[in-house]
TrEMBL record:
Keywords recorded for this protein, A-Z: Glycosyltransferase, Transferase
InterPro entries: Glyco_trans_9, LPS_LOS_Heptosyltrfase
SUPFAM superfamilies according to UniProt: UDP-Glycosyltransferase/glycogen phosphorylase (SSF53756)
GO biological process: lipopolysaccharide core region biosynthetic process
The protein, known as: Glycosyl transferase
Any one GO CC term of the record: cytosol
């Protein structure tokens, strides 16, 4: 049998689908797994050994559909469930199982602040799409694979950080999911440990400003490394501090300790760091969610916004940096 799994974007959402791919492959070895993804996110799944072939969402729609038709798929697992995936399913005309995005529940929660979301992580909701094939969640959490040629060596980071460092992921796709620069500078000033700032090319200038508080203690790696190289920096860190971003989910997939800082979104949407039941049974809770409690306007979105709709941005401005530092010290064994 041949299955097509669809998840176009983005980094975190794709990583969250990895238990589906692994469990399907290991529990149904008779199934050949193909994965359809946007070209800019191919590297997220490029090294995944449970995927037999990756297909790219192309601008030439007809050419892409002909390519997919030639594979003669037996089943589609739609983990994105939007209009474009509907077009794919209609074109291929094979049976499909689709992820329930709970858009109505999310609308009620973000607009009316009435939390009607089920207390089920999005990973477990993804897994429901493969239950009809006798596939169960194996409890092993998420996966992230880094090729040997994408690994970071000591020569790639300052000698001051060779003995260990904290990875601070400063980037996010939306303004309302990011701590303001002044808060990041306060955090780096108060943490007594080497720090590597991680982000893309868009965060280079912000990283330089944050690192200016102590250029020896804080190394700005933003824009210097590829996604998978940045993931390896995360893998080699002592712990990770980050926003609701793809690298936060990658850190959880790599079984790192995570301090997740939440702004306009919330872990109650079913997207907190996910490690799998087996890991949690054997280890102390490896993550902390840090958010402003009892803030009436949170969450204001399921994705993020380019500006605070209320104008005050209290969800990030009122985050206690001292609380984050206390958690860091505890996780480093200092208290």
């Amino acid at each position: 049998m041949k299955f097509l799994v669809i998840r176009f974007s983005s980094i975190g959402d794709i990583v969250l689908t990895t238990p589906v791919v692994r469990c399907l492959k290991l529990q149904r070895p008779d199934i050949e797994i193909h994965y359809l993804i946007k070209p800019q996110f191919k590297s997220v799944m490029a090294n995944n050994p449970y995927i037999d072939k990756i297909h790219i969402l192309q601008q030439d729609w007809n050419a892409m559909i002909e390519e997919l038709k030639a594979e003669k798929f037996d089943q589609i697992i739609d983990l994105h469930h939007n209009l474009r995936t509907l077009r794919v399913k209609n074109a291929l005309k094979v049976p499909s199982e689709s992820f329930n995005k709970l858009n109505i529940e999310k609308f009620i929660y973000t607009r009316l602040k009435w939390n009607v979301m089920p207390k089920v992580h999005v990973v477990d909701r993804y897994m429901q799409t493969v239950e009809p094939f006798g596939v169960k969640n194996d409890g092993a959490g998420m996966d992230y694979f880094i090729a040997p040629n994408e690994e970071i060596t000591l020569k790639d980071i300052p000698a001051s950080h060779h003995a260990g460092y904290i990875a601070l992921v400063i980037g996010a796709n939306y303004y309302t999911k990011k701590l303001p620069i002044y808060k990041l500078k306060e955090l780096c000033t108060k943490i007594n440990h080497p720090i590597i700032l991680i982000g893309g090319k868009d965060e280079v200038d912000e990283g330089n400003e944050v690192a200016s508080v102590d250029p020896i203690k804080v190394y700005n790696a933003c824009g210097k490394f590829s996604l998978n190289e940045s993931a390896d920096l995360v893998r080699k860190s002592k712990l990770v501090i980050g926003h609701d971003t793809g690298l936060m989910h990658i850190a959880a997939a790599l079984k790192k300790q995570v301090i997740a800082v939440w702004g306009s979104t919330t872990p109650s949407l079913g997207v907190e760091p996910y490690y799998g039941d087996n890991y949690l049974y054997q280890h102390a809770k490896p993550f902390n969610n840090v958010k402003v409690e009892k803030l009436w306007c949170q969450p204001c979105t399921k994705f993020g916004r380019n500006k605070c709709p209320q104008g005050h941005f209290k969800c990030m401005k009122n985050i206690s940096i001292d609380v984050i530092v206390q958690i860091v010290d505890k996780r480093l064994g200092r208290v």
